[in-house]
Amino acid sequence: MTASNSDASGRPVRRAICPGSFDPVTNGHLDIIGRAADLYDELVVAVFVNQSKSSLFTVEERRELLSEVTAGYPNVRIDAFEGLVVDYCRDNDIAVIVKGLRAVSDFDYELQMAQMNRGLAGIDTLFMPTNPEYSFLASSLVKEIARWGGDVSKLVPPNVLKRLTDRAGERS
Ligand code: PNS
Fold first, then answer.
1. pLDDT tens for each residue of 21-59
2. Which sequence positions are flagged as catalytic?
3. HEC sequence for the chain
4. Ligand 1: which residue has its CA nearest to atom 18?
5. Among the atoms of ligand 1, which is closest to the Cα of residue 53?
6. Which atom of ligand 1 is the closest one to the Cα of 117?
7. Residues 30 and 64: beta-carbon distance below 8 Å
8. Distance from residue 48's CA to the centre of ligand 1 (Å)
9. pTM, whole model, 2 decimals?
10. Does residue 116 line the site of ligand 1, with CB under 6 A?
């Protein structure tokens, strides 16, 4: 999709990005995505392709799961990118990065990245506090619990749960 700067009536399009690994997408991510989609005209949820980090799901699988769980949001688009998030923002006319903050422990690193991204390219970051229900939730924990057969059904959407269960079954 080519990003257009204005809508049919000439009004500027407010566009934001939710970048992340999404390995896999959790209910915590979905909470942030849904709320960000309400705030902006267009929201890109972008999977960061990190060659130096091993992942459970391929980029294509992660995109597919994200597409399924965001199907109800007409203004959300799923993509993947390699490189700097600010370069992706520049190429796609995106002015704002949206990040969920689970706890104070997230803040130090997120602030550092936000300030770096603002310094690099003038891209601002909007911090959104996660729903407290998900303050402990992380993809890494979900993967570990699912790997050992633990119940993650309240932590991830049903399509992700199925994919995790299938993957655990393949290993046993
Ligand atoms: O879900 P994650 O792994 O916490 O997401 C981290 C992510 C992908 C949002 C962050 O690492 C990122 O923006 N990476 C893109 C590369 C980049 O721009 N790095 C410089 C940040 S100042």
1. 999 999 999 999 999 999 999 999 999 999 999 999 999
2. 29, 53, 102, 139
3. CCCCCECCCCCECCEEEEEECCCCCCHHHHHHHHHHHHHCCEEEEEEECCCCCCCCCCHHHHHHHHHHHCCCCCCEEEEEECCCHHHHHHHCCCCEEEEEECCHHHHHHHHHHHHHHHHHHCCEEEEEECCHHHCCCCHHHHHHHHHCCCCCCCCCCHHHHHHHHHHHHHHC
4. 84
5. 3
6. 22
7. no
8. 7
9. 0.95
10. yes
Q: Is residue 26 within 8 Å of 137, Cβ to Cβ?
A: yes
Best residue among 85, 92, 110 to mutate for probing ligand 1's pocket (most ligand atoms within 8 Å of CB) is 85
Block residue for tokens 């049919």:
8
